[in-house]
Amino acid sequence: MKTAFLETYFMADSLNKRTTEKLLRQQAALAAFGMFAFREEDLGKILQEAARVCAESLGVPFCKVCRYRQAENDLLIEAGVGWRKGVVGLVVSRADTTSPQGRAYATGQPVLIKNLHLLNDILLPDFYAEHGIVSTVDVIIQRESGTPYGVLEIDSPFEHAYDQHDINFLTGFTNVLAEAVATAERTEKLRQAIAAKDLLLAEKNMLAEELQHRVRNNLHIVAAMLNSEMKQQDPAHAEGVAAIARRVMTLSRVYDHLLGVGLSRTIDFGSYVRSLCSALPDIHGIAGSEVVVTCDSDALSLDLDTVTALGMVIAELVANSYKHAFPAGRGTISVVLRHEPGSGAATLTIADDGVGLPPRISGKRHGIGLVTRLMEQVGGTLFAKSGTGTEWELRFPVPGTAAG
To answer: Is 265-404 assigned to CATH 3.10.50.30?
Structure first.
């Protein structure tokens, strides 16, 4: 009697140890899967890992994850382990009580079937018989809100003695899986929204660039027509045409620098100044002239309105030097842009080594009135120095760079 009691005791103790070890393995597997699922963004990889972990944790060769399709009212096998080719991604079951996974989905409760052959109210797809499936356990993958994602099912070719611990493990596992699915779906929606936004922005940039390109080309055409007209005019009228051509060319240079920057409202003023200075001698085109224009400019990002106004100022003052500073037809005009980050302002200096300003400047004749108005427009100041040559110092604010 004592021997029988001890045998029963040790058998129970051994069983308890095996149960405890199994529970520990399952909990470790659940924790490891949770860490994997919330790091992984690919939903397909999450589902496949879920099938692998569940099959391994329950000691069965087959497992699958089925996704509910509302339009078809069925359950499609999205991932699985152990199945032959042609099952995962293709086979479906009705989402009703006629199939094991459909019964779990329809009732919202775990479905444990010890022996499928003993049931008469189950309609099984052919692949169950092809794989010799005998017992199944199905647990619903319930989202926090809305319709469930689907069902997780483990399958065995033998009658399998599942217990409440196995059901508890699978229920806890599908809860983690449901949250991972929801996270992956939210991530995918966000990715799609970002992609759609990027596509829309790219289309807008393309349209903006096309518009800028057309405007630039039209301005070049107008400038060329004005230059041609200027050559055919008498000197009294040619100066007025040249002034218009100069301003059109200044605008065209703005659009030259806008190409490729899409919807940006700023451009590099330093680069623009260098480009403008290289083009100004062509528009004046004085035969036999030995006037040289030099340029030294710092990089400086400005809004389009400020760039346009300052570009007009440069064009007018350089033209003024061309017309009045060099009676002998030779000399140098320098354009210098300096910006000290943190100062809140930049300085543009336009100087020549010509004969200097006359005692009294006629604003209308020398274009100074336009320059003054343009500097007021950008909130800048204008100073003139005359001696050996003429120097214009233009100081203007640079938004967002003031010292703190």
So the answer is: no
